[in-house]
C-alpha cells in the first residue's frame, strides 16, 4: 500500500467516524485504525504498542501530523475539557477522491469500524482495544485470563467492565470475520 493510499483510507475512516457522531480526536482515530488493521486485516502497516489508553501507534501520530502539515486536517477545539476534533479539509477530500479503488476495496471494513466504534467514548475504546490486543497477542488465554490481564495492566478498569469488554470483543470479532472474508 502506498503512502497516499494509506492516507486516503485514514481520511475516509475519519470522515465516516464523523458521520457516525464520533468526537474524532486522535485517540478515536488511533483506536479505529487499530481495529481496522488488527480486526479487519486492512494492511495499514502500523506498528502498535500498548500505551496509556490501550493500543497506540506512533505511525498514526506521525501520519496525523503529516496530514495537518499538508493542510488535510484542521484541529477544531470543541470542549476545553477534551482534546480537539480532527476535521477533514477540502484537500483531504480530493486525496480520497483520487483513490477510489482503494476506498472501494476496503469500503465494508471502513463502514464496519465506523459503525461499531464511532459513537464510543475514549473509555469504551480503551477497554475494548486493550482486551482485543491481549486476545490477539495470546489467543490461548481463557476469558478469565484475558480479564485478569486487562485489570492487571489497566487497574482503573473494573473487573466487570473488563469482562464485558471481552464479551463485546468476541461478538464484534465474529461479525468482523464476515466483513474480512467478503474482500477475498
What does this structure look like?
Helix 2 runs parallel beside helix 7 (122-137). Helix content is 64%, strand content 8%. The chain has helices at 3-19, 26-38, 58-69, 90-97, 100-105, 107-117, 122-137, 143-153, 159-182; strands at residues 49-51, 54-56, 73-76, 85-88. The radius of gyration is 16 Å and the shape is globular. The chain has one domain (3-182). The protein is mostly helical and 184 residues long.
| Counted beta strands | 4
SS content category:
mainly alpha
Bulk shape: globular
Whole-angstrom Rg = 16 Å
Mean pLDDT: 93
Distance between the termini: 16 Å
Strand content: 5-15%
Number of domains: 1
Q: What's the SSE blueprint?
A:
Blueprint: H1 3-19, H2 26-38, E1 49-51, E2 54-56, H3 58-69, E3 73-76, E4 85-88, H4 90-97, H5 100-105, H6 107-117, H7 122-137, H8 143-153, H9 159-182
Antiparallel strand pairs: 1-2, 3-4
Helix pairs in contact: 1-4, 1-6, 2-6, 2-7, 6-9, 7-8, 7-9, 8-9
Amino acid at each position: 500500500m502506498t503512502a497516499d493510499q494509506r492516507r486516503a483510507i485514514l481520511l475516509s475512516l475519519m470522515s465516516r467516524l464523523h458521520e457516525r457522531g464520533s468526537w474524532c480526536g486522535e485517540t478515536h482515530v488511533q483506536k479505529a485504525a487499530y481495529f481496522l488493521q488488527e480486526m479487519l486485516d486492512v494492511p495499514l502497516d502500523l506498528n502498535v504498542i500498548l500505551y496509556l489508553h490501550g493500543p497506540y501507534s506512533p505511525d498514526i501520530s506521525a501520519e496525523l501530523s503529516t496530514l495537518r502539515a499538508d493542510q488535510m486536517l484542521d484541529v477544531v477545539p470543541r470542549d476545553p475539557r477534551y482534546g480537539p476534533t480532527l476535521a477533514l479539509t477540502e484537500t483531504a477530500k480530493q486525496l480520497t477522491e483520487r483513490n477510489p479503488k482503494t476506498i472501494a476495496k476496503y469500503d465494508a471494513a471502513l463502514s464496519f469500524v465506523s459503525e461499531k466504534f464511532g459513537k464510543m467514548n475514549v473509555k469504551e475504546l480503551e477497554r475494548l482495544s486493550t482486551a482485543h490486543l491481549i486476545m490477539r497477542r495470546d489467543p490461548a488465554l481463557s476469558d478469565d485470563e484475558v480479564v485478569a490481564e486487562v485489570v492487571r495492566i489497566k487497574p482503573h478498569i473494573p473487573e466487570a467492565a473488563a469482562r464485558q469488554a471481552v464479551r463485546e470483543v468476541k461478538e464484534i470479532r465474529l461479525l468482523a470475520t464476515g466483513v474480512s472474508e467478503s474482500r477475498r
